[in-house]
Amino acid sequence: MAELKPLQWPVVERDFGVGKVQIAGARDADARLADALGFEPPMAANRIALDGQLGCTRIAPHEWLLLGDAGAVAAAIDRIEAAFQGDPLALILNVSAGSTAWRLSGAQAIDRLSAYCPIDLHEDAFPTGSATRTRFSDIGVFLARIHDRPNFWLVADQSYADYVTHLLDHGVT
Question: Sign of dihedral through CA atoms 122, 125, 129, 130?
Fold first, then answer.
């Protein structure tokens, strides 16, 4: 039987922000979003673009998720709201209060995440810049590989924070 060992390596991201942007049918939406962000958001699914303290990923047609430092996310939301002011088809929300994020890094990160995620997280299958919605045990999460080291962001609804932390800290090794 495998031994259960508490680990101290998962770091709950403090001051982490999450924004959600939906822009359906707006004229020049991609270009206006890129101008507001200051970098090109990914147009393909399952990719994350990173620029300093802010990441952006396309999670559905006409829908993006902003991730990173809470101040950077809030400032990006303000710029996006200004870029789409008066557009009835744009919805820009700061959903940080409802989300919890973890930064997982090092060799243990792949093993621990793989214990609960059904996807191959090794570099050749899930390289830096990859992002996806997936399952973590029995809940839905967002997962992105943000560095080759490896280094991941794992984001779940705030209501599952204790559960995810328990799994990360006490998973089978």
Answer: negative
3-class state of residue 83 by DSSP: helix
Architecture in CATH for domain 16-97: 2-Layer Sandwich (3.30)
Considering the four listed CATH numbers 3.90.550.10, 3.40.930.10, 3.30.1360.120, 3.60.110.10, the one that applies to the domain covering 98-170 is 3.30.1360.120
Other CB atoms closer than 10 Å to residue 54's CB: what's the count?
A: 21
Q: Is the pTM of this model over 0.85?
A: yes
* pLDDT, tens only, 31-69: 999 999 999 999 888 999 999 889 999 988 889 999 999
53: which residues sit within 8 A by CB, 6+ positions away? 68, 69, 71, 72
Provide DSSP, 93-118. Answer: EE-GGGEEEEEEESHHHHHHHHTT-S
